[in-house]
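Incident log entry.

Two folding requests arrived from the same account within the same minute. Monitoring flagged them as a possible duplicate submission, but the sequences differ. Recording both here for audit purposes.

Request one:
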Amino acid sequence: MKPWRNVVFLCAAFWVAAPAADKKGAKEAQSNAAPARVSIEPRAKPGTTEPTESRGPSNIRVDSTLVLINVTVTDPMNRFVTGLDKDFFRLWEDNNEQTIAQFSSEDAPLSVGLVFDSSGSMGSKLHKSRQAAAQFFKTANPEDEFFLIQFNDRAELMVPFTHNTEEIQNRLTFTQAKGRTALLDAVHLAINHMKKGRNPRKAILILSDGGDNSSRYTESEIRNIVREADVQIYAMGIFEPAGGRGRTAEELSGPGLLTEIAEQTGGRHFPIENINELPDVAAKIGVELRNQYVLGYAPTNLTRDGKYRRVKVKVNQPRGFPTLRAFWRLGYYAPTQ
């Protein structure tokens, strides 16, 4: 049997149309008022064992011999593609192809920070934003841990790391919209607090409706911090239509800023114009974090110069299948010692 026959396309029922047989199941799930969820079991490969000192997969981690990078693969309908083996991937560092020495696809525990916009312009969007957070938490595993940062004129850590998602949701219940938007300060605070995370895989979810207009940190500073951090960033940007009246320069630049920050880390930005889509998109992000491959390689460049190394990943196209797209962290800083 050819390896591509094991390829599986996954999608939450709320995101894309499923085959007829699956629609019946989706209707039954809706009748029970239960959200659509995807659970991925770890795939054990014969003849492979985990290193005794491994703590599990991470977005990207560098030690004396190994770099680990998370990769998400989707099809043209934005469905997640699982079941691929190591031979389907190629990887380059600074245009030099590397040998993939370690490969896995498993649902490992996450440390996640929710960065929640409570500025004045969020007033009419708070209800759906709370629902989005609730849907995201429904994709969580018991070993996951979360924290909450809210921001308006300034960023504030409201709930430190906890396994109790209800604590965060209760805090969001009393959130009031007021003030300006210190988005960059909130990202900086989240990156710093993430250093206390216990799980090797780390992610930040930003939920905001506009660009920054109240931060002490600059866009350039945040770009550098994000490139250095071992954290995937996902963003849900709630924006008025491009032709909307009264949009400030900061709001106009908001989509580009969130896209750049997210893609640098191997995450994604989901621009949203209809707030009713928020819960479904949040759940989709939660599912995406559960459907990632981890590629490990020993860099051929052993120089410890602290320079930024650019990483490129390519998926070998299975014959007869639609074009697949990969998302990954774009690079890392080499160690200095």
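Request two (distinct sequence, not a duplicate):
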Amino acid sequence: MARRHLLGTLLLACLAIVPARAETPERYEQVYLTQEQALRVAIPDADRVTPRTYAPSVEERKQIARRLGRRIDEPDYVFHEGTREGQTIGYAVVLEEIGKYYPITFIVGLKPDGEVREVAVMVYRERRGDAVRRGRFLNQFDGKTSADPLMVNRDITHLTGATVSSWSIAAGVKKAAVLFETLVKR
């Protein structure tokens, strides 16, 4: 009987020192732009925007993964081609990258040569870190290409209080540039 009591006491003591499992914070969602609004921001001068779906081959997936340093999971990507008077003036792709807990939805606008024209956050789903939607952060991507590192602490400065979100957006812009070069510009 004393042995059971001792085991029970030890078990309770162990439970008392084991930290509780961290709970994922309650989901919060702020929509800043609809897809239609985002396309107007990413390709502002287009008189026509046409979605085009690109499904990377196995070899293209390997090539993209090598360049990004991570695999891609989506089966295909939709690049919106913006034209004006029949001439292609730009492209845009909507992507999602995981922030601290939840995905951040954003659009990346690219010039026909693959240079980043515009980045805009469409939906942010966490209570903290939404400063990444402001120009002070997003303007750093203007003019960058897939040849640039597009990495925090290399050519992108993160925002204090939004460090994870800064890394996520930077990784997503790099992904957009590499996808464009591999799938669209080829």
